[in-house]
## 1
Amino acid sequence: MTRNWLHEARALDDTDRLKGFRCRFHLPKDGIYMDGNSLGLASVDALKALERAAEEWRTRGIGGWLEAAPDWFTYGERIGAAMAPLVGAHPDEVVMTGSTTSNLHTLAATFYAPEGERRKILADELNFPSDLYALESQIRMKGGDPARDLLLARSADGRTLEEDDLIGMMDETVALALLPGVLYRSGQLLDIRRLTRAAHERGVMIGFDCAHSVGSVPHALHDDDADFAFWCSYKHLNGGPGAPAGLFVNRRHFGRTPGLAGWFGYVKERQFDMSISFEHARSAGGWQMGTPCVLSAASLDGALKLFNEAGIVEVREKSLALTGFLIEMVDERLFPLGFEVGTPRKPERRGGHVAVEHAEAWRICCALKKKGIVPDFRPPRVIRLAPVALYNTFEDVERTVAALETIVKGREYEAFSAEREAVS
Ligand SMILES: *Cc1c(COP(=O)(O)O)cnc(C)c1O
């Protein structure tokens, strides 16, 4: 008997404990948004917080720094504390500031200390390119040569990494390892605890880029003993385009001098003494550089409320059910049409999105968009689909698969050009 997928989807939606959150987001009118791993949707809460901050600017001017509620002066620390439960950190171990890439820069400048034979940074060839550009420039700034000092772990299948290979590369020439929590293309989830333990046993400092895992996967950064981590807030966290990024520093390291210092990292009570000798706050806040963007800090503040109401454990549970349902349908309905799942199948090995691969991926994405379904494309052959726990339904997932089926069976993608756009 063939399965009635739509019927199954609706039954799953009926019993979904998070279904009440969907109406708090601004969803596309006649479409399906499956791209929350690139830019999460706006919520009523985020926009309300943003409008409140704009109003405070309108009515208070400079007074907003201390008189706004919450005050702007400590906004980065406050949303850091609200963020902490999502990543398993103490409230003072997280600050929201800068961008993913600028946070990597200040953290690498702090934790990459080449000495004697230990001069290399271990990363991987599947990492988001911005991270590799940043690491190369950090190596150059410390007098090294990226061709020699940036070690890139290779992937055997072009999709995933093996922890054993990564650990095998952590030898006495490696000073720092920087690895992803979830790989941005395949969605593979790495074992942060195991990698951290192995790194520390070998005298290697280790940090994680959690841009693709935060907001869909719970973390235990403190208990896992990561030295540092960073992530963006506009993907699964729905903070808004360019909202302040996350920065985690393990308490053990609060005494270290921030690599790229600035006055917003000064001990808060004395920041306005304007002393010319730098004294950084003994918290993640010490790693801030300059004045925070208050407006986007506010939208992030509003967006985080939804997570703290829903709970990251519940978010993860629904996210796995959604991606599991999607994987099952790709295997059963789309595999005969040339599609393949590029994401690890085991729940403990995958994050919040699924890489659906096809030789015609780009043109299929164009055809999906024409139907009002928003995916994203990563070259050469990956369609990334992120059914998001807080605002997508099982029915959204079923309808997306049904659309993919129609597009390929009817060769609808042939109507589109192979030329790619600047942002995909
Ligand atoms: C999205 C993403 C970034 C983006 O960096 P920005 O500085 O926010 O532009 C960096 N690294 C990874 C792994 C990402 O997924």
## 2
Amino acid sequence: MSQFQFETLAIHAGQDPEPATGAVTIPIYQTSTFAQHAVGAHRGFDYARTDNPTRTALQECLAALERGSHALTFASGMAAITTLLLYFKQGDHIVVADDVYGGTYRLFQRVFANFGLEFSFVDLTDLDATRRALRAQTRMIWVESPTNPLLKVVDIQALSALARGRGILVGVDNTFASPYLQRPLELGADLSMHSTTKYLGGHSDVVGGALVTNHAALYERLKFLQNAAGAVPAPFDCWLVLRGLKTLALRLERHSQNALEIAQWLEMQPQIARVLYPGLPSHPQHAVARKQMRTPAGAPAYGGMISFIARGGRAMAEKIAAATKIFTLAESLGGVESLIEIPAAMTHLSVADSPLAVDPGLVRLSVGIENVADLQQDLDAALESV
Ligand SMILES: *Cc1c(COP(=O)(O)O)cnc(C)c1O
């Protein structure tokens, strides 16, 4: 399979027609257990926490898309990160992007810190600051790029070079870019992680997570932990993500086109102080984004997420978010429909009063695949009304 291109793999990897009936679409194997011919002799499946054929198909497809050797899937993005953290032990130190998903910060600081893991939150766009944060006990650098919600872009290749030879893993939360726009393992990272809830599922109808790697020993330990801790996804949820993956390439093309057009337009609006989008030349890491965020065919593209700072702070941001009609006021991202939210009051409430607190006037858009003129008119009307 690996000789095929991304779009082909997204539809076929791990998904040969089912041998017993010829079903073209992977069935939802809604079973908890599997018959054995004799004690211990089975067809590769014994109990569905350990393995399920629908999940196996999804894992093979994700590994192919991320150019990894193995993938593991979980009940949510947070379950994927939780299982990864079970790999470490008391006293281990992890360097973390200072602008991570709020739930990641909460899990690290308010759960795993209680078990003796140590975390340093660092601006990973500053390589010198990152180098200074490393300790003898540092075991991983946890990257998000683009970050949520400030859309900072971290140079994954440079960070991986920094970590190499020091026994430090580089893990990348690749949720915002998706493997269509960014393949961290090809850039030298050891792990790529997803909230499959977002672009991979793509239709705002499933919650899930994934880890992808190309280290066999790391995979074996994580596979053990997936089964030991048991935060596995349901077969139907795996099937929904598989269905989403089939159109990932088409969707990300349109998300990226729509978002670039809207970001350029937003930059000209007087009600807006600043637009954050990796595809804009005004973005501080635009050059890194241009090098790192590329379609499998090599064209730069920057995804569907935009943040902007409204003039007039939180009050104005809330008015804009309440006034749009197509952009639905809701948390989450990466679905076909456009969403708008206020991170300080919604997705990033868990980092309020922490060093990661975000500007109260920040508005985050998940630009969907609707008609771009309709989307622009919706934003225009909302800006005019406030
Ligand atoms: C949503 C999200 C997560 C958490 O994933 P869930 O599926 O909600 O558990 C982690 N990282 C990023 C960047 C996210 O957007």
